[in-house]
Amino acid sequence: MTGARAAFLDRDGVLNEGVPDPETGLLESPLHPDEVRLLPGVGEALARLADAGFVLVGVSNQPAVAKGKVSLEELIATQERVLELLAAEGVNFATFKLCLHHPEGIVPELSGSCECRKPAPGMLLEAAAELALDLGSSWMIGDTDGDVGAGRNAGTKTVLVEYPGSAHKRGRAEDPDLRAADLPAAVAAIVNG
Ligand SMILES: [Mg+2]
Ligand SMILES: [Zn+2]
């Protein structure tokens, strides 16, 4: 018997807007709850995925604590704000995993290599084991090469969401199965495909 199919979703640039880094001007993760803004149509798109029988699983690299940019409490409060805004639109994730590590972090216990930082497949494999998911009929939806790589490494199909603010994190990956301008377009392609 095969397991359920899942939609593995990256967070920043897929569910919510990025926030400009004060030093580089490039869009990075929101680091405070009041910076969280859902992208247009996200609640409706996730509800459509759930209606089509996909288990919703979040998988996000969040290295800001490891880099010393924010406290763990603030990072968790920011994540809770994302979930709260989605819940207000009637969307609930089966599980939402965060990798807190970074290879060159400054907080020793969160620094160095790990098996969960995308493109490693650790978060997807862990969720698949916990929730009896069938990876081959599942999709990874993300806006960076790391997301496509994580899906490939876990054995899912992949959609690259071409969020304008994260163009600097795309370009070197193997081709994804699909490309889409945003989450609603990605979901339309998956559900209609
Ligand atoms: Mg992202
Ligand atoms: Zn990790």
Description:
The protein is an alpha/beta fold and 193 residues long. It has a single domain (8-134, 144-192), classed as Rossmann fold (3-Layer(aba) Sandwich). Helices cover 30% and strands 17% of the residues. It is built from five helices and eight strands; from the N terminus they run E-E-E-H-E-H-E-H-E-H-E-E-H. It has helices at 42-51, 72-88, 122-131, 145-154, 183-192; strands at 6-9, 19-20, 27-28, 55-61, 95-99, 139-142, 157-161, 178-180. The strands form two sheets. A six-stranded parallel β-sheet has the order 5-4-1-6-7-8, sandwiched between helices. Helix 4 (145-154) links the parallel strand 6 (139-142) and strand 7. Helix 1 (42-51) packs parallel to helix 5 (183-192). The longest helix has 17 residues, at 72-88. The two termini are 23 Å apart. The mean pLDDT is 95. The protein binds magnesium ion and zinc ion. Magnesium ion (MG) binds at residues 10, 12-14, 142-144, 166.
Summarize the structure.
The protein is α/β, with parallel strands linked by helices and 193 residues long. The protein has five helices and eight strands, in the order E-E-E-H-E-H-E-H-E-H-E-E-H. It has a six-stranded parallel β-sheet, with helices on both faces. A two-stranded antiparallel ribbon has the order 2-3.
